[in-house]
Automatic annotation (TrEMBL):
Residues 14-90 form the ATP-dependent RecD2 DNA helicase OB-fold domain. SUPFAM superfamilies: P-loop containing nucleoside triphosphate hydrolases. Signal peptide: none annotated. It comes from the Bacteria. It comes from Colwellia asteriadis. The lineage of its organism: Bacteria, Pseudomonadati, Pseudomonadota, Gammaproteobacteria, Alteromonadales. It holds the Pfam family OB_YrrC. This is ATP-dependent RecD-like DNA helicase. InterPro entries: P-loop_NTPase (IPR027417), RecD2_N_OB (IPR055446).
Amino acid sequence: MKLANIKFNEEAITLVGVVTHIIHSTRDNRGISAIFQLMVKKSKIVVVAEFGSINSFPIVGEIWHVTGEYKTDLTYGSQFKVEKSVKSLPDKDTPLNVLADYLVFNSIFTGITRHWAKKLIRTFDSNLYNVLENSSVKSLTDNKKLKIPKTLAFNLLDSWRKISSESELNEYFIAHHFPIELVEATRQLLGTEASKLLDKNPYLIYPIMSVKALQRTWKELDSIIRSLYKISKNDPRRAVSFIESKLYSAQNDHGHMALPIDIIEAALKEAKINFDLTSLNEESAEFKTLCLNKSNKTVQILGHQAIEKSINVLLQKRIKTSEHNSTIDMFDVIPTYNTLESLGIHFNHLQKKALEIAFTHMISVIDGASFSGKRVIIQSLVDVLLRDGGNVWLISSSSNDEVTALSRLEGESIYRFISKAPKRNKIGALSDSLIIIENAHSIDTLTFYKLLKKLPLTARLCLVGDHRKLPPLGPGNVFSQLLAGESDAITRLEKCYNFRTNNKLFDLSSSFLSGTISKELNRTPTADLSVLQDICIYESQEKSHEMISNITANIWFEYKSNFDINAQIICTSNLLCELINKQIQLARLNRKKAAKVVVGNRMFFVGDPIIFSKQNTFLGVSSGALSTIHEVFDKSKIVHGRECLLSIVVDEQVIEISKEELECISLSYAITAHKVQNHHYENTMIVLDNFYLISKAWLYTVINATDENLLFIGNRNALSVKMNTSEFSLQRHFGIPITLAGEYD
């Protein structure tokens, strides 16, 4: 192989070639990683670009410049590990062999095979780039040496002109100091006229950016735009973009789908921007991205309003199919009632009502506090339908049931259900079914929209949740919005039953509803680590994460040593969770010769509990899924083209994890309260590390995730104040009410 396309820069090697195959690619909040084949001369080289070394997904047919070094693996041979990679378009300096591969592998060049690429090179040699830039169809077809058909010549030059426009957008971004990794997304969203549209409104680039520090990024972008485009402080385009930054931040930080007008007006005033909000609804407005909701006086991103409107439309379509409904008479519920009564469980009138509505309505909503019998109703629905030949699906990641004698149905996460829905719809598996969603209060607006889009109109939907618990991690709060409306499809369970073996935990949980929290908290004894107490508090005034981490880890080991239990630690912040996880892992396992994987500063041992901190599309695992390290491989295994280092078990399936996918998982000796949602633990340690982040809903959620023994670590007086606040959680603002009534703007 000739080294014409390989350059040495100190110790690093730079390769230039064309992508021929994508082995694996993924994106998360750290960026992009990819494994792909690059054609360099006549050799296909496997390129591994980890997070931070690549800024956009490679696509077959693209030209990439990659800098790094070769690594040899005993399992699958040589790989090229990338330090830096840059996508480029062909120019006058592009080597002929790369240009030929570009014409062959890029799907935009229809009909250009290896045969025609070779003929083009033989005919024009080093002048090929200029020929493609400047030739006409006639000049190509008239070339007697080339002998190219007219249609093929037209396709070749037409495709080349499209490529040239892409090159112009690249140059435009470089000249205006815009992030070059946004070129592809900008081209897809704004089309071939992207440069002209950005000249008209350069702030269009902001919604395309995917960043964490939304307002800081806007300020940096605003500084560049005002300097290059000479835009005044009160320019309407700037004002609209400023409002967008506030709305996107409110969604990202607090889960709002909209903001009240007075909050937006105050923000504009503070920024000294003069802008009339009523102009947002003018039909003549160019680049319309915002809207004003007159009914509830909120300002909203137009796309967010569209999602809310679409959800309402999909709900109404489902409700209008009510003539397709069955009645409860089709199902025999008496055997199930008899089974429950034999266990000492008697359905009250509200529980019977909830059961009947779930059978007879296309959409039903059941709201109830912990231990109000929601899961008994779910299991009763499942029992009746499975026994009488009904079609039922359960969306739930919870594994603990209040009643164990009824028929079982394995639940799955809502993310996995949505991903499998298209295949199930093809075989009619979801038609005429009842789909039960447990813990529906944790479903955000976008996820609910995706779910409705996937369901056939003949499928019934039963949402079961507790509005008192923490709201979804994502934006919006569909469950609470539905409860705010009036509908006969909504059942509010009122009575709580003590299914717990720990009466003190039941009393503490019930005190949230009865308003006697102070009384129950005063009864809570100080922790005595020599005995296992139902509820206790280890009082501490410490505020530093280092000291709290030491205290918590030491108590965890005391519990492990004295009572042989692995208590689940629950904190408010991810930072404290990481400190505690590292302390426990190192003290527990590092001294032993257990199998482990070390990647950077991250370490995983066999038996470590882990949680998916972010969803992984390739693996089909949702955020919050719990597991343990099943096996650490002596030698890495190649599974689906990925270099896998270990395996875990999720939903009784063994899943191999690659080095890149390790970034999706975290240790879970300690986790945050939001990740507790949908799970139950026998023993918990509740760390009261940051009372600013602790709400009544936070406390209610973690207490009701505990089945046996609970230990608080922190300040008793501050805990009492938080428990006695009147509201469970702060309201999330929305634009269009999501309702079963069908009346909205």
